[in-house]
Structure formats: structure tokens, C-alpha cells
Specification:
The strands form three sheets. The chain has a six-stranded parallel β-sheet with strand order 9-8-7-10-11-12, with helices on both faces. A four-stranded parallel β-sheet has the order 3-4-5-6, sandwiched between helices. It has a three-stranded parallel β-sheet with strand order 2-1-13, with no helix packed on it. The protein is an alpha/beta fold and 362 residues long. The two termini are 14 Å apart. It has 13 helices and 13 strands.
Amino acid sequence: MLVDLLQGLDRQRFTQSVVRGTPIDNEGDYLKNRAVPAEVITARGLRRSLDVVGEFRSLFALIGTLRRLKPDIVHTHMAKAGVIGRIAAVLARVPVRVHTYHGHLLHGYFSPSMTRIVTTIERFLRLVTTHALVVGDTTRRDLLKARVIHEQRSSTILPAARTLQRHDRYMARTSLGLPHDGVIVGFVGRLTGIKRPDRFLRVAAAVPDATFVMVGNGPLHDAVARTASVLPNVRLLDWHEDIAVVLSAIDVLVLTSDNEGVPLSLIEAALIGVPVVAVDVGGVREIVEDGVTGIIVHDESQLAEAVSHLVRDTACRQKFGAQAKSFISKRCSLTTYLEAHATLYERLVVRESCSGVARDAI
């Protein structure tokens, strides 16, 4: 989504810079081998894990960076960067502060007491956020109900459906070391509790006539690897930089999460023409049409049956895949995505009494 903005916004109207945290080695560096029309600044102290000293260092370093860049807008993404970035933007006197909620942390991530703390922090940040963009109507309703965002200062925007080129199935499977024959069912994502890789493994055990491949890394990697090692039809692969290769190699994508915003992996699968089976969470129904582009189930008890159906029915897989590609291209238009951001940026800068149109965004 960030790369879409970097590459798609009019460079005559917007100059962009990116401040990011330190990439995690075994989870890939998305910007490492991609040329983007923006200055990319790595904040060494900003990491996924919690480190109070590191967070303060990152905050002060970011304040210095913003004072140097003097942007009209700071646009933050993700929870931790959103906290530090918005506070730094206020202290650096950046006039417009936008935050995108790709999902939320209101349930499934923390204990009840920690969830209350996180919610309180987000309610405070609401006071200093010029506008909140939310990925999906379902997530926006949840955030409004929790009083994390203002109704008049928030809006919904779906992720953009980028162009993905489908690779030759045989070559994709060869490059990943996967079997050339048979149906392959995939899991793509971080191996964390909220993504519920344990559900995927139980489905694999219940559907022995397909190969199940898990592509990703994360804190549960070792536990997942131990369970996968005793299931003959399960393969565990590290994160792959080219998601199109992974999706070209599989026949069905499964989403097993407890909580999601609008899952980007499902959009990418649709663009490749891969049908999905997904648990009915978050904004899944906003990008998957049940019985038309995939199958949505209410809980884990229905997962194995749905996956087994698509494993057995080649014609259904092909039909769903073709319909998914057409549906998502219309539903998640890149043009609409870029125009929505450009219009919002310029409107907010004018509203905050800045001179001219937005010149810089970070």
C-alpha cells in the first residue's frame, strides 16, 4: 500500500519521504531491492518489539528528521509507528497528521488490561490526528464504537489492487521446491498467534490428499515447525520476496486469523486468480464474495470441509479464481485509491491553513 502511494502519486504535486523501522532479517526487507521515488530513512531504534529506551530514542530522532524535512503532512501506518510518528509530528509542529488503520488491536492481541491501555493511548492520539483512514468499513465501525476515531474526521479506503503477473505454475513450484503434481493449499503470513497457524495445521491433518504449504516467519516459527515435521503433507517455507511466485504455485489460499482488517493476501490471491477459504473476520466479506470468489466460513469447524471441497473440485477452483480476479480489480481500483489520497492530502492542507497545495508528505 505504501509503495502504491510512492509510485503512483503525481510527483509534480507531492514529494514523499519514508521513515521506517529496522527490517527483521528473516521476514524480508520489502524496499531492499525496489527503487522508489522517495528518500528512505531507516530509524534504527524503531523495531517491532517493545523497548522503552529505544522508543524514546526513536521519538527524538524522528522529531529531528521531521524538523529537517519540514513536511506538510505526516502519514503514519501500523500501530507502533503510528504512536511514535504522530507524537513526533505534533512536537515537530507538522500541520497535518494522517494515520491509516490497517486493522485494529481491540481484540485478539493482548490481555484485557493491556487492551484497555492500548485503547486509551489510541483515544489520546485521536485528539492529535487530523484524519484517520481506515482499511475497510467493518474496521471503521469497530474503531468508532471504541471511540478511537472521530466520525467526521475519518473515512474508509480499501487497499489498491496492484498488477500482479501470474508465473508459470510448474516453474513457480520448482523455484519453491514444491511438488509439481497435485493440489497445493497455502497459508501466507506472519506466524503469530493472531494469524492462527495452528488452525491451518489441523486442516492439513484433516485433508491428507493435498499438500499444505506455509510461507512466512515470526515468533511461532519453531512451534509450527515442530508440528509440521510430523505431518507428511505440510511444507514450511521462509518468507518469499515475490508473492506472485508463491501464489502462482498454489491452488487454494486459506486465511485462518482471529482478527484482520482487509487482508492484503486475499486481494493478491484474487489478482493471480487463486480462490480462497477464509474465516469470517474483519473486512473479509468486503473483498471476498462467498460462493462466487471463494468460501467464507463462520468458524474453524467448517474450515476442513470447505478446503476439502475446493481440493476435490477442479472446476469450482477455476471458476472461483476467474471470478475473483474480475471482482477485485473493480472493487479495489488503484486509480480510486490514489485519487482518494491525493484529494484528502490537498483538502487537509488547505483546511489547516497551509499555503498552496501539499508539497511534501512523509
